[in-house]
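Q: How would the structure tokens look for this protein?
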Amino acid sequence: MKLENTKLLQDPDKSFIVHYENKSFARWHHHPEYELVLILNGRGKRMIGDHIDRFDKNDLVLLGSFLPHEYLCDSEYLHHPDGFQGKAIVYQFLKDFLGPQFFEIPENRNLTRVLDESYRGLQFYGKTRDKLISLIKDSYQMDGTERLYSLFSIFKIICQTREYKLLSSPGFMKPLHNKGDEPIQKAFEYIVQHFQEDVTLKDMLALTNMSNSAFCIAFKKTCRMTFKEYLVNVRVGYACKLLTDETMNISQIAYNCGFENLSNFNRQFKKIRNITPSQFQQLANSSPPAAEESN
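A: Here is the predicted structure in token form.
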């Protein structure tokens, strides 16, 4: 798929964007801004990084900077007699839109953590989603000052919750990890740089100068998965990126991502993505015809 760089129009007297979308949603694209997307009306296929799923009304996702994404509405919304029926509210902001220091102050450490995690895409659920929707749904009708303080209220909610799930694999985009445990950061950096090679637990212990048990506990606490699970997720995420590019065949992709054979690649891929690599490629590159916009 061709990845486009799409930008919404920002008013010259506004520091961030609140956009009411009622035209056909943008195809596979990315942009430097962080993006919060609330679906007001619509149903279809959502692709975020290497994560493919269905979306429906009240779907709420936070997207990191330059994370590729696409929302494709079903035919009943694309080709309705009265025109496109999908509707969404989109917030977009650059990380330094409040100045270079805002997200670096100690009081914002949790907010910064959430923004760092959004490089994989975050889907909110539960009471957190309900609270956020109540703030977002009328925001495009607010004046500039109301929007700004509404955004601060949104920030307050998302920095205090764990009611979200990570969508894309860590290998699709270069992982961003919080400042903290330096040995574990070294491990993450090594995996990202060498995942196409034979990376072992022995390598990790030598790099971090930690015991087996200490490393495994610290790694899982930071990453929410084991070292081996993380390594496979990075490889599968990178494989998904190559599958969407369609520049190599599946066997070439398997070996390019560090898998020792095609059968292991297929098995691990299906375990993580719940579909085979060929099914993922077909699904990722299938799209309905675009809706016609009325003049």
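The first strand starts at residue 4 and ends at 5.

The longest helix spans residues 227-245.

Upvote if useful.
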